[in-house]
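Chain A, query sequence.
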Amino acid sequence: MNKRIYNVFFHTHTVSGIVISVALYIIFFAGAFALFKDEIEVWEEGKSITHTERKNIDYDKLFATLDEDYDLTGRDLQINLGKHKDKIYVSVSPSQDTISNKKAAESQYFSIDIHTEKRKEYHEYYGVGEFLYRLHFFHQIPTIGIYLAGFVALFFLFAIVTGVIVHWKKIVSNFYSFNPKIALKRVWTDAHTALGVIGLPFQFIFAVTGAYFCLSILVLIPANFLYNGDQTKLLEDIRPERKTYVWEEKNTSELPSFNEFIQKSDTIWEDFHFTSAFIRNYEGSNMRYVLQGELHDKDRFVGIGRTIYNQKTGTIEIAKNPEKLNYVEDVQLTLGRLHFGSFGGFLIKTIYFILALITCFVIISGVLIWVEARNKKSMTVQQRLYTAKVGHTYLAICLSMLPVTALSFLFIKIFGQSFANLQTAIYACYFILWFVAILYLKLKKDNYKVNKISLLLGGIFGLLIPIANGIVSGQWIWNSFINNQKDFFIIDFLWLCIGSISLLMYSRISEKVKSQSAFTKTPIDYKEAKKELEEQYKLEQQSEKSKDKNFIPMRTKIIMLWIFLVIGFIIHHVYGIADVYFKESLLLEGANGETPEWAHQWRILLEGIAFVFAVLTVQISKQWFKWTSLIWAIILGLFNIYHFITAVIYEFTNVSEILVLFLMVITSMFLIKELIDWKSVINSTAKE
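Chain A, predicted structure.
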């Protein structure tokens, strides 16, 4: 490979890695804990489980109770049976029998205790395990979060390929030349290469499967052409167990026993366990019971089995033999097992967990290599400051996840029973703590201290988790081990190891490591840097004024962009009124001549606050105001992007609205860019 091609791959690998590094770190860190999602859920509740066989559950009694409460006639039920927990999860669709069952128009989703039949809504049983699983693919970002995670996985695959090409010749030598006493950049480079190669197969699998699951909509586009646009047929072939049937009429005969169906199905294949069940058109003449399960992974890596009870014929059909492969179905299961480590038991999950944390280290070391390499005397002060800020921000976001996650486990264990809506409580706890931790660590402006603080707090909080579990739930780690309560023991032992290793690493990292940093050898004098930037800014302003007759001062641009956003919001509302003229009567249903409170709130949040920032920018140029303006501009920008995407998806015929929203997205981008530049300007030079 000649030097030019090498440099192209090297810079491509660096840029792609830096761009996705923070998002990728979050995905792998949260994903590592998501591997133990089921165990975390049991640990959170603090109650011993009985590991009841799925075939021994009294489903007939359960359905009779649900029928009394939800009127199941004409509904479809989907039941996630799980494997060992004392809960099953039920999803109930709206009824198709709209004539005799008018009240059953809403869908339901809840968990059921198989012993007490106690039901909990999603927000009631939501836990930190579920939160981290969802964070793993950015589910907390509405609509676009999963696609963002998919594109990150796609770029990660690109970074893996270019990384292998760049480091190919150094892979073997770096295993033997690793020496922590040499230059820090060399340490990070050797560790980045060596550990990256160790986790390479794992990372490649996750990049491919992650991109597949998160961007499945793009995968299905070419398949859709093969089916001539018949998406229903396509989805039935990919997920045949989810096939639905048109409602015909209510059946007057006795409801067939689901208990008998599952008992008979259990005798068909040996060492077979059920994972899910489906009921189509409950109490209908064409009702069907569907059972799906798998052979044990020690017998067969891929073995999906499915039986169907047909109400009309009164017979059980074998729809899928687990001992016979089906390419379309089994590819789905294979990718799922590879991604979630749902084979090989606890050992595979532990290996996946360790490799996920190794990948986190590879990501961080890649960022540190970039930071170290760009801190040279030959670079301008502005470039060095930018590099330092990026490094401080990236490390603050990534490393703070350890103590914040540990603290969230403590929070849910100690205070979890106090909240009716656990989902809201966990969101508030995790994101507020994370935001505060990021700000605190970033203001340190010292990567060494950020690392030390994160390890110290993460270690302390991690060691407190088994203690908190013992005090609150009475499940002390030694009792869990003796009583073979694996779910409690796994989580407590996991945090015991994480806490101990974190404190050990904290004690081993000395000031000598910091002294090897390029920022220690060629430190940045922030006071002098500000003066240099001030002079540089003055020269740039004078140069721009002399060269460009249409020059607009920075603060004037910012004020204009804020006002443009205000106008954009107003125009968008006007188009909303136009919709009323063109589609509906002018007097909306429920209108009483008064503007509702929610309308005032939206006006204040959108055009009101934007107009306030435009006015205040005329007089205020303090650093706190610049930061506040930037944060609010970013929030508005994300809102505008989200609104634009949803408009394209759901209102693609409303061209005028989409155009306005697109221009508002562009305006937000320009505004954020100008505010970032303004933030770096010294206050004494801000007055124009």
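Residues 580-588, 684-688 have pLDDT under 50 and may be disordered. The chain has 27 helices and eight strands.
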